[in-house]
Amino acid sequence: MRRLINRRPDVAIGFGLMLLPFVAVIIAYMVASDARLSVNPNDKLLPGWSTIAAAIERMAFLPDQRTGTYLLLEDTISSLTRLGIGVAVATVIGGIFGILQGLIPYFRSTFNAFTSVLSMIPPLAVLPILFIVFGLGELAKVVLVAVGIAPFIIRDLALRTEEIPHEEIIKAQTLGASTWQIIVRIVVPQMLPRLIDGVRLSLGAAWLFLIAAEAIASDSGLGYRIFLMRRYLAMDVILPYVAWITFLAFALDLALRLFQRVAFRWMYRGN
Amino acid sequence: MKRFSALLLSSMLLSTAAQAQDSFKVCWSIYAGWMPWAYGAESGIVKKWADKYDINIELVQFNDYIEGINQFTAGAYDGVMATNMDALAIPSAGGVDSTILLICDYSDGNDVIILKGKDKLEDIKGQKVNLVELSVSHYTLARGLESVGMSEKDVTVVNTSDADMIAAYATPDVTAMVTWNPMAAEILQQEGAYNVFDSTKLPGEIQDSLVVNTQTLKDNPAFAKAMTGIWYETMALMSGDDEAAKEAKTAMGVASGTDLEGYEAQLAATEMFYKPEDYIKFTEGNLGELTTFVTSFLFDHGLLGQAATSPGYIGIELADGTIVGDENNVLLRYTTEYAKMAAEGKL
After folding, report:
1. Of B168, B201, B234, which marks where a domain is finished?
2. What is the C-alpha separation between A73 and A221, in angstroms, rounded?
């Protein structure tokens, strides 16, 4: 049937269509940037490619004049360390609480309402409390990331745990499995790949919290640099940083997906 | 897409291609020396002067001071309340020729270096210092360290949002801080907080000004006249001893989140230019020398742009026409033309 929903682009056209919106954005940028630069050659809002290239060279490939370090590298390492620890902590907490909350009625009665309420609190609004409890150093930033995404991971995993067919749990019990054995042999193996899904979905929020934390008090990091540069409208530095963060986020997501494919091959059997 | 980019373009170009216009937008943010603008808008003084010159003036409050300056630089606003330092580092360094139409005040104690448990500036050595990096706080720190023979190498600067200064001070690992009023006053009330250096030692260096686009100013003298008129009328109103002055200052205090008493405490650390003569006299002093302190700080921190080869890379035209720095790259100007009209009652 030649209905629109049945017509598919071939590989080449599909690839071209994929590029189209990106190219359109780049062209729109170039037109607007040219227009502004022709009025004011020093315009900082939409810098030209050569200015951006010079900024990339300065930030990524030349040691900083004041400190002698490579700023982009240093910022990337600090940010990824904070993000990594924060997400890891949230994953462990989310994994444990999510499974227990999904499986054990007493645990659910105790914590279900609490985590639901907790996940509704905007962490950025209670930042001063986090500062006073955890200080202004690295700990507070890691905690903000962890606190920001853990409730989501817990709730997501609890729901997935509840979705495990009840027959499986009954069957294990008729075979004499204890609660501990059911958790370790039935629930955890099925939930680990779901946990990775949950982490993947919360990565965007994790970046948001990381950058917010770095904007508030910091001496290095990708978010720190962006907010510092914003003070004098250095879009030539900010735009490459945004592209770099986007790339890192994309790469992390891809890495988790590949890990899931390799580590939990059974999930992909049959399709 | 084409239409979209054309739309985007026209909206962006609209404000940069300045011509005679009858509607003007000026942005301001909360600060002791700028609250009179808010009062002027609220009490009808702004409308009165705008009507007199048959134009529209809209004063827009920005919660984020820097965002206001960025918007001005991008061309979305015709004027902005900014310090001379930020005017130089953002619009001027961004190629936008800007004019200081009038200086509202200079910081006379509003910017403070605070140490926890230590009472001498020398004790700051080796400490982590929380401040808004590249702001006037950073400048105050650099000048303070200079005054005791130290430099920024002797401390570690930690960029901290101004909104979180008071909470930050309450944490045990924060021991040194540079911030401004009203946060500084609040922090100094706590036990063990010492004011070890403040801007009373830097008279006239941190000027809080009304900065306008030079081209807009040239094309629209009425805008400059109206703004000048608004300012000095409000100043005359608030500097008196009568009930009206009290009422105006109370309103300004409330609008900035405090009360009459709190606002007067802030004014005490602010040298207001109540009369046009105050501003004119100030520009006839050592203004040229004062600007070189600011330009060398900006140059040291790479804030004059990557192309800058010396602190004088951006030329600054003083009110009498003399130029400090590069004559071929004048991007910041002081003018007393309109203040003089105000002084002579010709507005």
Report:
1. B201
2. 9
B234 is a domain residue: yes
Residue B308 CA to residue B263 CA, distance in Å, equals 40
- Could you tell me if B124 and B241 are in contact, meaning their C-beta atoms sit under 8 angstroms apart? no
Contact A131 B168 (CB under 8 A): yes
Q: Which residues of B touch A42 (CB under 8 A)?
A: 93-96, 305
In a domain, B228, yes or no: yes
Listed in order, strand segments (DSSP E) in B117-206 are: 128-131, 156-160, 176-180, 193-198
Tell me how close the Cα of B228 comes to any Cα of chain A, in angstroms: 27
Which structural domain, as residue segments, surrounds residue B294?
19-106+205-343
The domain A71-268 is placed in CATH, from the list 1.10.10.10, 1.10.101.10, 3.40.190.10, 1.10.3720.10, at: 1.10.3720.10
User: What residues does each domain of chain A span?
Assistant: 4-43, 71-268
Residues B192 and B71 in one domain: no
Chain A residues with a Cβ under 8 Å from any Cβ in chain B:
24, 27-28, 31-32, 35-36, 39-45, 54-55, 58, 65, 127-128, 131-132, 135-137, 215-219, 224, 227-228, 230-233
Q: What is the ipTM of this complex?
A: 0.73
Task: Assign B150 to helix, strand or coil.
Answer: coil
Side chain identity at residue A221, one-letter code:
G
On chain A, the residues whose CB falls within 8 A of the CB of B161 are: 215-217
Residue B308 in domain? yes
Residues 289-318 of B with CB under 8 A from A: 302-303, 305-306
pLDDT tens for each residue of chain B, 347 residues long: 444 544 455 455 444 444 678 899 999 999 999 999 999 999 999 999 999 999 999 999 998 888 899 999 999 999 999 999 999 999 999 899 999 999 999 999 999 999 999 999 999 999 999 999 989 999 999 999 999 999 999 999 999 988 889 888 988 889 999 999 888 988 999 889 999 999 999 999 999 999 999 999 999 999 999 999 999 999 999 998 999 999 999 999 999 888 999 899 999 999 999 999 999 999 999 999 999 999 999 998 888 877 788 999 999 999 999 999 999 999 999 999 999 999 999 98
Tell me, what CATH number does B150's domain have?
Answer: 3.40.190.10
For residue A187, the 8-state DSSP code is I
Distance between CA atoms of residues A169 and A166, nearest Å: 5
Across the interface, do A231 and B96 touch by the CB < 8 Å criterion? no
Query: B197 and B209: one domain?
Result: no
Number of domains in chain B: 2
Rg of chain B over Cα atoms, rounded to whole angstroms, equals: 20
